[in-house]
């Protein structure tokens, strides 16, 4: 009997697979489109919230570019949730 038992390959937190990378890329792209669709009035009225979204979006892009797909997805999801909240409050297209 071997001294060690293989239970599966461990990967670094930044490890990625093509599907996860594609999902992160698409999520980041959709956030960019949604940010671009915000009216100037909404951007002015909800400046702090918009800045938070932009910060998460920017960090997500940086994480993806550095190979941290899971980090990118997490940050992009935070940006998406903030955008969702803004829309629920009537912050889009006004």
Overall mean confidence score, pLDDT:
85
**Helix proportion range:** 55-70%
Kindly, what is the distance between the CA atoms of the first and last residues, rounded to a whole number of angstroms? 69 Å
E-strand count: 0
Radius of gyration: 18 Å
User: What does the largest sheet look like?
Assistant: none
CATH topology: Substrate Binding Domain Of Dnak, Chain:A, Domain 2
**Structural class by helix and strand composition:** mainly alpha
**Which residue ranges are poorly predicted, with pLDDT under 50 across at least 5 consecutive positions?**
none
CATH class reads Mainly Alpha
Estimate what percentage of residues fall within beta strands. under 5%
Question: How many domains, as an integer?
Answer: 1
**Principal-axis shape:** elongated
Could you please describe the fold and organization of this structure?
α1 (18-37) runs antiparallel to α3 and α3 (47-65) packs antiparallel against α4. The chain is mostly helical and 94 residues long. It is built from four helices and no strands. The N and C termini lie far apart (69 Å). It has helices spanning 18-37, 40-45, 47-65, 69-88. It has a single domain, classed as Substrate Binding Domain Of Dnak, Chain:A, Domain 2 (Up-down Bundle). The protein is 69% helix and 0% strand.
């Amino acid at each position: 009997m071997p001294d060690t038992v293989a239970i599966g390959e461990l990967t670094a937190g930044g490890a990625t697979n093509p599907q996860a990378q594609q999902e992160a890329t698409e999520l980041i792209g959709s956030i960019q489109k949604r940010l671009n669709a915000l009216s100037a009035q909404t951007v002015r009225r909800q400046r702090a919230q918009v800045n938070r979204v932009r910060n998460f979006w920017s960090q997500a892009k940086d994480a993806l570019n550095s190979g941290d797909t899971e980090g990118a997805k997490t940050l992009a999801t935070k940006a998406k949730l903030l955008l969702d909240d803004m829309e629920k409050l009537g912050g889009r297209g006004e």
